[in-house]
């Protein structure tokens, strides 16, 4: 009994912070979702406004598309790298550090790098032109989406790889040795030992990466401003712009919808992994 | 206590510390918006509004027709004396009042004896406590001191400087300042920063200090101490012995922190003035921060008056003299932005709250002298209210307009937003849409009934009988040039074709020197009013026409013009498209196109017409007759001080403040008529102005400013009255259009591509 309460005591400071700075404000957000900006209850009017808002729908579509493209790519790529790095033995430490470097690069520097590389007169077009290729206006055409995906993968792969390696570390070597004695090859060991053993970690890593994908807005905003090429116009752009125009009604309703969708996605993922 | 319990106790304490630290940041602080005017800080320092006792300001009447006020003094008999130039009678006068300005008496002077003094160039004069006026006059390389005694008799001395050969001769006889010290000795300073004490009986000068190396900007006297202000420091010396005194760290720090305090003095006053008590044992000084009291050697100065609560805080005002009457009364003479002299009295009222109990928050994205003047005028009439001016972009912190708007919105949502908003650069339409702005039509109606108002402007902001935003000032775009060019300026299409036609004919220097951005800005001001449809959407055809024409105009000039523009440093005023009215006569262009923001500018336009036959008309008038609003004001619908906010709005839009500024014409008709009246009588035989320019090509151009005739004043009034629609002032749309437009003009993308990008981005913005 005492042990049980001791645990709560340790959790209490952080949890009180979460309550105070996240849960309680979010409850206020939920309340405001049913109120007009200048005051007055309005029922579901704000939700209707948001769901019929063209900008919101475009941004939501782009965000879903971005998540569906990036998340699987990130998880697979980082897992592949994790397995390769893990198998290198002593060199794994150095390789891990190398892959983590992009995480340490500030968003402002990444934005500057983007501009240098992908401006219509930038390095990439310069190289393309010198090789006889046709310059592309990367940030003002559909290719902006590809640039955004690439940037997200470049920045986050190393970090997720480290998470995968931590999960791989938790698998006892004796299991692999027993499988080897039983004649299992590398592929069989990966599919029948590694994957089942890292499944519990996969949920955490997937949720983490999903939430992290929202941070890509910083780079997109710094490079292309509030109104970027429409394929990289994300939900965060809408929320940011709504705040600037004091559209609190739409902002809070959108936030509630987003929380519901994100919560549902996490729940569905958890259920799927549990079922497996 | 065993070890386990100790561990638990420590853990518990650590938990508490963590929680407390986390909550530590939750205390209420000052608003997150940028710079404030100091009243909030003072309120915090005073520990709320409970304290009593404050200096209150009253403006004392001055004699009429003062062109220049040289010195002010409080005489031993209690009268206030002024030495001034009366521009109606064209004469120097000493005027005195014994009843705080209720009546002024001109001292009879022996004018015949003063002829030689008054005939010279008088740059400085000083009045002693016994009423003797010392006038420094330079006449035929002779430095004369005229002494007008209290009985009106005049004595003349020729001054000889003892160290003439040791200094720059050209500047030695230019006396830049004079003052009497507590002993009644006259001190003078010349342009070489040499200070002398003048023997009034003989005219002999004794060198007190040579501060040439310091380059003194201006000086003041506090008792027997001279405070000479150099860049970043104050040099103090004894006025009787000339002995240098210990440096005052407090004054030096103040001067180092604010370089404007050591700006070179001009006819219109100083940024810092001094007075003293008991021979200088206590020094008083006034700057825009307020009135301070400083004991020499002390480590701090005590603030007696917060400048933001009085006229001292108006940054367009400069100071002439500070006079200490007694501990509870001070006199300050100052000069306003229009050159008008002011005599201000500050009296301590022990029953007045130390800080006015009512705070009115006024927010503006950018600071403006006009707004400061309005606040000052309002503050003077409402001493029970202090106006807390919050500036979003102070310019000191690298904050962007977007950051500032975000901070403002945070304050509004937190319930601590401003009461009055100056909506220039703010998303006004969105605020109106959200019901954040109150209907101000009753205020507008009241002003319209009292002073009259430009009806075209009122109609432009009328929204089904309600008005949520209203500009205090506005201006229009004009085109001037020869008849053909003026006709071409009636629409962008005609202008573009005119440019192409001239280019085809092999002509150059058609449009004024400009950058792509500058050209886009000029055309935007004239044309953007035509872009918005009634449903709030952007018309693609109109934007396309704008960009196509801009491109055609840009391409019609040789590309070197952009380099030339930047080689001139890209004149700042050009970024708002100011009309360069003299360009045609200078042969730098065939026409000029841009905004005209004041009657002073119109005087130039008129003088061009009168002397060179260069006519003018409203630009783009066939497409849309538009105006550019500025100082757009609104009242927050959430304010609890709607009464004070409305009174402030009345001051902002009122006749008194309307005539102040040079940035736009006032919407208030009474104020406008005053501006017109002033323009019609500005130049006479005593007051003249003009331009003379010699170009690189050897052309010489000369023009004298003329007062516009009634017919021409009617014409410009008609142009202002005809402007029906405001230019599109939405910051986001303007930024998008100019950004993409510049790319199109410079050839980075086609006009069609730029229009497509503009429409996509603007549609997104408008759809949000």
Explain what this protein looks like in three dimensions:
The complex is a heterodimer of chains A (276) and B (768). Chain A has 276 residues and is an all-alpha fold. Chain A is 78% helix and 0% strand. Chain A has twelve helices and no strands. The longest helix of chain A is centred in the first third of the chain and has 34 residues, at 54-87. By secondary structure, chain B is an alpha+beta fold. Chain B has three domains: 3-356, Neuraminidase (6 Propeller), CATH 2.120.10; 378-468 and 632-658, D-Maltodextrin-Binding Protein, domain 2 (3-Layer(aba) Sandwich); 473-630 and 670-767, D-Maltodextrin-Binding Protein, domain 2. Chain B is built from 22 helices and 34 strands. In chain B, strands 24, 25, 26, 27, 28, 29, 30, 31 and 34 form a nine-stranded mixed beta sheet that branches. Chain B has a four-stranded antiparallel beta sheet with strand order 1-23-22-21, with no helix packed on it. In chain B, strand 17 (273-277) and strand 18 (282-287) form a beta hairpin. In chain B, helix 12 runs parallel beside helix 14, helix 14 crosses helix 21 and helix 21 runs antiparallel to helix 22. Chain B is globular, with a radius of gyration of 30 Å. The A-B interface holds A 9-10, 12-13, 16-17, 20-21, 36-38, 53-56, 58, 120, 137, 140, 226-227, 230, 233, 238, 241-250 and B 11-12, 15, 18-19, 22-23, 402, 405-406, 409, 412-413, 427, 430-431, 434-436, 637-638, 732, 736, 748-749, 757, 760-761, 763-765, 767-768.
